[in-house]
Amino acid sequence: MRQPVGVGDVTSGLLLVKLLQGATLQEALEHVTAAVYEIMVTTKAMQEYELQVVAAQDRIAKPEHISAQQSSEISHFGPQRPVGRWLLL
């Protein structure tokens, strides 16, 4: 499977939106991290390399908070490193 493309673009776009909506930097980063994770999970489940943003739109708007332990059940695209209570891919 190919590595997904556009992760940086979606990350910076979501971060800008959350900051413009008035979120603190911490709140924005927490939301963006969870939302990007949801996009990656959806993309992996659909066996695609192009980010499945439309398919994940509800999970982007209201992402579930996933801990490093919960995510260990999900196959990932690359190295992981826990950051606080979030997991960065």
From TrEMBL:
**Which terms does the record give in the GO molecular function aspect?**
pyridoxal kinase activity
EC assignment: the record states: 2.7.1.35
Q: Which InterPro entries match?
A: Ribokinase-like
Identify the keywords attached in UniProt to this record, alphabetized: Kinase, Transferase
- Matching Gene3D superfamilies: 3.40.1190.20
**Per its UniProt entry, which superkingdom is the organism in?**
Bacteria
| UniProt cross-references to SUPFAM superfamilies, sorted A to Z | Ribokinase-like (SSF53613)
Q: What is this protein called?
A: Pyridoxamine kinase
Q: Which organism is it from?
A: Escherichia coli
